[in-house]
What does this fold into?
Amino acid sequence: MIHELDESLRSFVRQEALPDNGVDVVFDAPTKDWASRRNAPTVDLYLYDIREDMARRQSGHSVRRDADGLGIARDQPPRWFKLSYLVTAWTQRPEDEHRLLSLLLQCFLTRDALPSGALTGSLAELGSAISYTCALPPPQDRALSDVWSALGGELKPSLDLVVTAPFDLTQEIPIGPPVTEPLGLGVTDLTGGPGAAHDPTRFERATNRNGNGAKAPPERDPGGDAGSQARPKKQKPTRSAPRRS
It folds into this structure.
C-alpha cells in the first residue's frame, strides 16, 4: 500500500503542481549528504511517520455477493493509516525553492483528497477517497524540528502532508453453499431399536420397568372398562310392601 501511495502522490504532484517544468519528484531522506549531491531542481516527499487512524477502525465483516445477490465470501474491512510526509523543495536559490513550495501548497489546498485518476493498484480498486491534510499544526508529541534533528540536516521551509489511506488485509472468509432445498423433518423410534413395530404404549411400559416414569395405566378389558373384573357390581336396594292389618 505504501509504494502505491507514493506513486499516486508522484502522479498527482507532477500533473497538478509541476506540469512540464523538469522538476524531479523523489522520496529520499533529506540528509546533508543527499542535499550536497543534488544538482537538478527537486521536490522531496519524505515519509517520516506512520500511525493507524483508530477512529476509522471497523469490526465485523462485509459480505461479498454475486450477480444473483447470494453471499459468496466475507471480507475483513481495511485498516486506515495516517502517513506523514515532509515536503521540501531543493534548488540553487531560496527564491526558486519558495516558488516551488507555493505551487505545491496551492495544489494541495485546492482539494481534500487525491483525484481518482492518480490512484494506482489496490488504492484504485477499493474505490475509497484518499483524503489528506496539508500544513496543519503537528500534534504535541511530534515536532518537525525533531525530524530535522534526527536527519542531521539544517532546518528549512517545508510542508507537513498527512495522507489517510486504507491498508487492504485481503483476508477472505468463505461462506457455505446456499440452501436450495426445504427443511426436512424425520421421526425415529429410539426405544425399540431399528425395525420395531409402532406401539403407543411401548414407551410407557419401558419407563415403568426402568423406574423413570409414572406407572403405566392398566390394560383395558375387551368387554368393558379397565378394572371392571376387580370391582363387584353394586345391587340396588329393594323395598318390601307394607302389611295390612
The radius of gyration is 43 Å. The beta strands are 24-26, 42-52, 62-65, 71-75, 79-90, 132-134, 159-167, 172-174. The chain has a mean pLDDT of 79.
